[in-house]
Amino acid sequence: MTAVELIEKKRDGDTLTANEIRWLIDAYTKGVVKDYQMAAMTMAVFLNGLTAEELAVWTDAMMHSGDVLDLDMIAKPKVDKHSTGGVGDKVSIPLVPMVAACGVAIPMISGRGLGHTGGTLDKLESIPGFTTNLDRERFTSILEQYGLVLAGQSKSLVPADRKLYALRDSTGTVPSIPLISSSIMSKKLAEDLDGLVLDVKVGIGAFMKDEASARTLAKTMVGIGSAHGTTTVAYLTRMDEPLGLEVGNASEIIESIAVLRGDGPADLTEVTMVLAAEMLVLGGIEGSLETANKRLAQVIASGEALELFGQVIEAQGGNRDVIDDPSLLPKASHRFEVKAPASGYVRAVNALAVGRAAMSLGAGRETKDQKVDPGVGITLHAKTGDSVEQGAPLATLAFNDHDRVEAALALLREAWEIGEALTPQELIIDRIDG
User: Fold this and answer.
1) Mean per-residue pLDDT, 94-116
2) Confidence of residue 165 (pLDDT cuts 50, 70, 90)
3) Structural domain includes residue 67
4) d(CA 102, CA 95)
5) Radius of gyration, CA atoms only, the chain
């Protein structure tokens, strides 16, 4: 068996056997198959796809390319959530303590932001002292004690994905649905889960711009989960404008805390509650979404969810005082307001433009090795459906570097569409299960 033989086979539209796929992933992880050979294979997959059987084996081979978590010592049902990424998408941060406070264990392994989409790890690490770099012993200890842990991917967990992700990014094969779905699902299935909820974003600020592609991706990932015996449910949610009012890192922590207090923005709260309720049902904690929502409302009203978040911040080395004193979080030195050029109603807020503007201020990164500035960001004052007067603030920029402002302003001045009133579209597009 050689890499060239398998590349030619997939290039010509043939089906790879399970043994061929497992050999390929293993050989690539070990460096036997070179990057240039795997680049050719990913292009062949991009052009010709993978069958459902090939994809199940491909994902399983990636999952077993390194360590797989064994969480049998955790008595609670283990359910996780994953988002395909968007602008202002901080849902995981309030969701995890809410669901954990209801009795579900969540071994959440998240990623960093890249491009215009923010990363959960970057937001969490804006909390002074908070670490997401946990060894296996500390990871499982925190999970066992608190029912949740918020960590980054270790070097030994799904190493094949880490290599493939970088390769796809540099070879124009990122949009391949089989490669996207196997990347996401290999990491999640390695967490030893009982259930998984997926938030597949759709719209201009999402990776999947159209509903048809997002639906295909969602169905593919649900199918992979089912093939591996993990109950998986996907939601299609809209990402044409930012979620919530804050786009940054520290500022999104503040907004997440607001959700845990019960006074977060309506759109952010809605998506968080929908996904959290599904997790409680998948975990067998509640028998219906209706009762799950009531239970979630209880742990918010009682302060249980917020208290648990504080405990985990402390357990992971962070300063839990940020919950009551947001001034302890990083804060940018300067502010600038973007004002409405005319009176009317907001018809759209371009999430992609806002995300790119935040990135240009330093809130995001273009390459994986770049550092982010946790204190900078954008606060939105008007979203779709809101009425505005000429000269009223549409957004406030928080920044440290004056040289970065002009590029952000150029993007933001074109981000708002103001005109006649319209009714905003529903955030939740559809629910997809097996």
Assistant:
1) 91
2) confident
3) no
4) 11
5) 22
Interstrand relation of 79-83 and 195-202 (parallel, antiparallel or unpaired): parallel
Alpha-carbon gap, residue 293 to 284, rounded angstroms? 14
Residues 320 and 341 in one domain: no
How open is the CA angle 257-428-309, to the nearest 5 degrees? 20
**Edge-to-edge strand list for the sheet holding 334-339:** 246-248, 377-380, 393-399, 334-339
Q: Is residue 160 one of the residues assigned to a domain?
A: no
Domain shared by 249 and 306, yes or no: yes
Q: Looking at residue 41, which CATH number applies to its domain?
A: 1.20.970.10
User: Could you say which of 187, 295, 356, 383 is catalytic?
Assistant: 187
Based on the fold, state whether residues 142 and 240 are members of the same structural domain: yes
pLDDT of residue 199: 98
We report the CATH number of the domain holding residue 287 as: 3.40.1030.10
* pTM (2 d.p.): 0.93
pLDDT over 90 (residue 433): yes
Q: Report in angstroms the alpha-carbon separations of 257 from 86, 88, 187, 252, 310.
A: 19, 14, 27, 9, 10
408 in a structural domain: yes
For the chain, what is the domain count?
3
82 tagged catalytic: yes
Asked about 187 being catalytic, the answer comes back as yes
Catalytic residue among 60, 80, 122, 161: 161
Residue at 249: amino acid letter: N
Whole-angstrom CA distances from 299 to 101, 150, 153, 283 are 7, 20, 29, 17
Say which of 116, 163, 168, 404 is annotated catalytic: 168
Say yes or no: 121 and 260 in one domain.
yes
Query: 423 to each of 202, 237, 268, 400, how far by Cα in Å?
Result: 18, 17, 18, 37
Instruction: Decide: 352 and 87 in contact? Cβ < 8 Å.
Output: yes
Q: What are phi and psi of 375, to 5 degrees?
A: -90, -15
Show the domain range for 36. 3-49
Final residue of a structural domain among 325, 360, 385:
325
Same domain as 349, residue 312: no
- The dihedral sign for the CA sequence 175, 181, 183, 188: positive
Instruction: Check 82, 320, 383, 404 and give the catalytic one.
Output: 82
Digit-coded pLDDT (tens) for 325-335 = 999 999 999 99
Please state, in angstroms and rounded to a whole number, the distance separating the CA atoms of residues 34 and 37. 5
Tens digits of residue pLDDT in 26-48: 999 999 999 999 999 999 999 99
